[in-house]
Amino acid sequence: MRTWVILLLTLVLILVIKVDGQRRKPRPTVVRPPKRPTRPPPEPVEPTDLPPPLPPGPPSVFPDCPRECFCPPDFPSTIYCDSRNLRKVPNLPSRARYVYLQNNFIEDLPEDAFKNATEVQWINLDNNRIKKVDKKILEKMENLTYLYMEKNQLKEVPPYLPQRLEQLRLSRNQISKIPAGVFNKMDNLILLDLHHNKLSDNVFNKNTFKGLKNLIQLNLAHNILRKMPPTVPETVNQLFLDRNNIEEIPTNYFKDLPNLAFLRLNYNQLSEKGLSKNIFNISSLLVLQLAHNQFATVPSISPQLEHLYMNDNIIEKINGTEICPLPFAPADFLSSENTFVPHLRYLRLDGNQLKPPIPLDVIMCFRLLQSVII
Ligand SMILES: *[C@@H]1O[C@H](CO)[C@@H](O)[C@H](O)[C@H]1NC(C)=O
Ligand SMILES: *[C@@H]1O[C@H](CO)[C@@H](O)[C@H](O)[C@H]1NC(C)=O
Ligand SMILES: *[C@@H]1O[C@H](CO)[C@@H](O)[C@H](O)[C@H]1NC(C)=O
Ligand SMILES: *[C@@H]1O[C@H](CO)[C@@H](O)[C@H](O)[C@H]1NC(C)=O
User: Where are the transmembrane segments (predicted)?
Assistant: First the structure.
């Protein structure tokens, strides 16, 4: 009994009360392209008037280096043309593989924009003013694997995408349309980021993501969805749907997603009403984020879940016996075997109508808990 009390005391000591800034973002498990060396990227402010393009830098060791750009002598395949107040894509040499064009004022990509740079593998066009990507431009870029066009003015997903593409980042545009069949043959795509756009339910149908046979991360957060997308590729490991208006989730929705490990549904309209009891009892899931919804109770979870965010809901009380994903066997309490212990390590409950202390039955069920925020 004494050991019992000591153990409980230790547990109580490590419970954190109101800790901020602990949110963990799951990182996509994808290979990153090489980082640029040192020049610090100045964060541009959205100007009202176009500033003049910056004067050209010193001549490059490469005679074909566009004067607007910087061609590092040690990396002949890399061209830096970012943060130069450019209005158009400079004339890129054919050796270009990694092209940095972010933080400029490029408005359109004419058909010959990348005329010679047909073997480009990586293009960063984040933070420009592009409204449209001509079908013919991307058609020629067979080797393109990473296309970043965050923070532009696109209204639709580019109508043609090269088949080698592994990452497509189109967040912070005004996309309200996905051309039919655009992802049909994209079986190399690993990451699709469409967050902070204007996507609504009628954009999606059963075939929208058909063909994405290797997709790992799908980010549809911050759109105007009221429903879950009808089909999500079964390979998806990270599904982000925060900041939509989702009210319900079809029963068995997650049954077809055997690899789902990170699910984020923060800032939606979810409550017990639109959900079947076991909807989040998903054995592959490691992190479940349901903050800023209308939950009155903590939903059933699987013993494998490690992080649960239930903060800023309307939970009034919590019953450890009911939410415990495994039958609680007091005899096992002091055994060092963790095999049959729920894996939950991190639990956020702040912003509800709960008051400390954390009920004893919660602590006794989730013996691996390292912090509870209440
Ligand atoms: C692009 O290719 C054309 C034809 O091969 C050539 O004349 C031109 O100089 C090239 N431009 C650059 C920037 O390499
Ligand atoms: C680009 O793609 C072509 C055709 O698919 C291939 O032959 C070539 O080796 C690729 N280039 C690079 C640099 O990967
Ligand atoms: C969760 O699902 C498993 C099977 O997948 C089931 O055995 C278990 O009873 C469920 N948990 C709850 C609380 O219903
Ligand atoms: C918790 O739930 C269990 C099972 O439903 C019930 O027997 C128990 O009385 C509840 N505990 C509290 C404190 O409400």
Answer: none
**CA angle (100, 101, 106) in 5-degree steps:** 170
The pair of three-digit structure tokens given for residue 53, joined into one six-digit string:
């393009």
Can you tell me which atom of ligand 3 is nearest the CA of 281? 1
Distance 98 CA to ligand 1 centre (A): 18
Count of the separate structural domains present in the chain: 1
**94 occurs within a structural domain:** yes
Quick check: is 249 in a domain? no
pLDDT tens, position by position, 4-63: 433 443 443 344 333 333 444 444 455 555 555 566 666 655 555 666 667 777 777 888
CATH of the domain at 82: 3.80.10.10
CA atoms of 216 and 205, how far apart (whole Å)? 20
Q: Which of 143, 163, 165, 166 to mutate to test the pocket of ligand 2 (most atoms within 8 A of CB)?
A: 143
Domain hosting residue 94, numbered range: 49-153
Pocket of ligand 2 (CB under 6 A): 119, 142-143
The answer to whether residue 145 sits within a structural domain is yes
Report yes or no: 238 and 217 within 8 Å, Cβ to Cβ. yes
**pTM, 2 dp:** 0.84
Q: How close is the Cα of 86 to the center of ligand 1, in Å? A: 20
Q: Name the token pair of 72.
A: 């590092």
Is residue 128 one of the residues assigned to a domain?
A: yes
Closest ligand 3 atom to Cα of 278? 14
Index of the ligand 1 atom closest to the CA of residue 92: 13
